[in-house]
From TrEMBL:
Organism: Lysobacter soli
Stored PROSITE patterns: HTH_LACI_1, HTH_LACI_2
Protein name: LacI family transcriptional regulator
Alphabetically ordered keywords of this record: DNA-binding, Repressor, Transcription, Transcription regulation
UniProt KW Lipid biosynthesis keyword: no
InterPro entries noted in UniProt: HTH_LacI, LacI/GalR-like_sensor, Lambda_DNA-bd_dom_sf, Peripla_BP_I
Pfam families, A to Z: LacI, Peripla_BP_3
Amino acid sequence: MPSVTIKDVARIAQVSVATVSRALNGHGNVAEDVRNRVFAAAQELRYTPHAAARSLSSRRTQTLGVVLPDLHGEFFSELMRGIDQVARAKRLHLLVSSYHGNPDEQGAALRAMRGRVDGLLVLSPFAETPTLLGEHLDPSLPTVLINSQSGLDGAAVLRVDNFGGAVAMVEHLVASGHRSIAFIAGPADNFDAHERLRGYRDALARLLPGTPEWVLQGDFDEASGHRAGRELIDSSRRPDAVFAANDMMALGCLFAFAHDGLRVPDDIAVAGFDDIPLARYVHPALTTIRVNIAELGARAARLLIAQIAGEAADEAPASTSDLLETGLIVRESSGSRLLPRSP
């Protein structure tokens, strides 16, 4: 049986070969009913575009590269879910690599992407990201940085409002009557962690002037949250509330308190940051700062696709910056010292 060609799809869909090509490649200048007709014809004929030939003719791989510090945990699975939804809608493939938080492995992953992808999504949380990336990124390759510092010409940057979210949480805890608020910080070289710590410090100084900060070191994982919780349990005094710089550390801290018999929020309040899916299902449900993590990935993918399309139109890639807003989610774990406590 002879192989099906793009001309066969065009004949069945009653459109030109060029229209079939534009529709299957996800270009926007195709009417929706025409696009649906093309897809239906391609499905009926079981037509699959020849990837190598298409790449040679368009100089495109139809693939987006994604370079992340890790693939483990709910944050990264939600981020990938958002990226994948956009890529699938545009009929694009993903090439994903993790560098396990190692700057040297990050450089190797970035170099390995060259010639294999049409653009890059990079989550590089290191404080010195511009210097690290500048040594390994191809400046001609469209790139979107996620939750990273700016500083690379031609790279779009999409960040979460980490500072504003941390300020909002401290405001909530203070408004709830908590006056001694400990903070479990993230890694010292992490940009997100730095911004969340800055928000905690600024809000504390403004709302409770003269109150000393209480910062415990964490590493954005459950184990470090548990260690911080044990440190608070063993200290000579106890704070009114603990604000962890991410939900995973908050959950580890909750476990330490529960194991020691401390009641949350009656004895001590706990809050987190990110609103991972698990946050609402623990007991007590976790007060946190919501980051629409899937939308973060989806918006980054849309920014990258737009940048690739702009380059195809011979437009110079622009350096842009976008901020993803956060929202306060109040649940049982933060409690209130303004209300009567249970006996």
